[in-house]
Amino acid sequence: MRNGADPYDPGYGRVRRARGNKRGRFDGEETFAKRDRHRPRLRAHDSNDATDGLPEGDRWSTWDQSTPTERGPLPHPDWLVTELAAVDTELGILKTGKEADVYLLRRGVPETDRSSLLAAKRYRDASHRMFHRDSGYLEGRRTRESRVNQAAASRSSFGREAIAGQWAHAEFAALSRLYALGVPVPYPVQITGTEVLLEFIGDDDGTAAPRLAETRPGRDELASLWDQLTEALVTLAQDGLAHGDLSPYNLLVRQGWLVMIDLPQVVDVIANPNGSQFLDRDARNVGAWFAARGHPDADADRLASLLREEARLT
User: Fold this and answer.
1) pLDDT tens, residue by residue, 161-181
2) What's the whole-number mean pLDDT along residues 205-217?
3) Mind telling me the catalytic residues?
4) Model confidence over 56-102: pLDDT tens digits?
5) Nearest to 190 by CA among 104, 269, 121, 245
6) Which of 55, 68, 147, 295 is the most buried (most CB within 10 A)?
7) Phi and psi, residue 106, nearest 5°
8) 3-state secondary structure (DSSP) of residue 131
9) How many CB atoms lie within 10 A of CB 296?
């Protein structure tokens, strides 16, 4: 059920603190206290009056700060709040990561019932990002500016900043492309700078859908999830893509439906010289999980062969 009260997400758990700019956290998550001072908070996004007249921890909606190409595919879902009178309220942190942190926001129009939960994925600034595996994924990616390409290749200070921007925009572009193809991913709401706003996958109390790795599906559900996953991966391969880092930890399950998340490293398997290896690794990682739970059709080698064939690499 996708509406103002029904969120979708890249987060994993339940927010403990419910409002303001106080940092909530999920059950079982580490606090990362030493890095906490570097986490990007709800902020004005270069506008001096973005929080004018609002309680601490709130901001006016940033919808008008994104261009049409920086917003999700048309038509926009009915649940999406696009009114400029809307307010973003930060509810807590959903997930911490090496490259980005994910926060839970409620975007709503005051004194109305128009609201929805969003996941705000904020990539770290150049001083504190740790893009530890970027070189392999970035092969085949190019910008139109040769200066940016050269800086990215040299990993200069400007280059690291350029790479960070590439990750945020690559994820938004990948989500937009896959959503339009019908792949089960969160709807990409908008991007402003290095903050990507996404559809939240979970319940209206802020409880996020569990990761596949956390589930214990019965035989019938296991078979259904495998079929959904195979169909999604085939769709990617037919479009010349691989997730690039697929595992049971970046697949969510909500009411029997699979949702794929964490997509900044999506690989163009045609342009990337190691494209077939990324397809094989994705198939191996998820195939092993399903096979370990006794699904008879979970053959990683057969899945990898199918994906290479669909991507026209064989």
Assistant:
1) 566 677 889 999 999 999 999
2) 96
3) 245, 262
4) 879 999 999 999 999 999 999 999 999 999 999 999 999 988 889 99
5) 121
6) 295
7) -110, 120
8) coil
9) 11
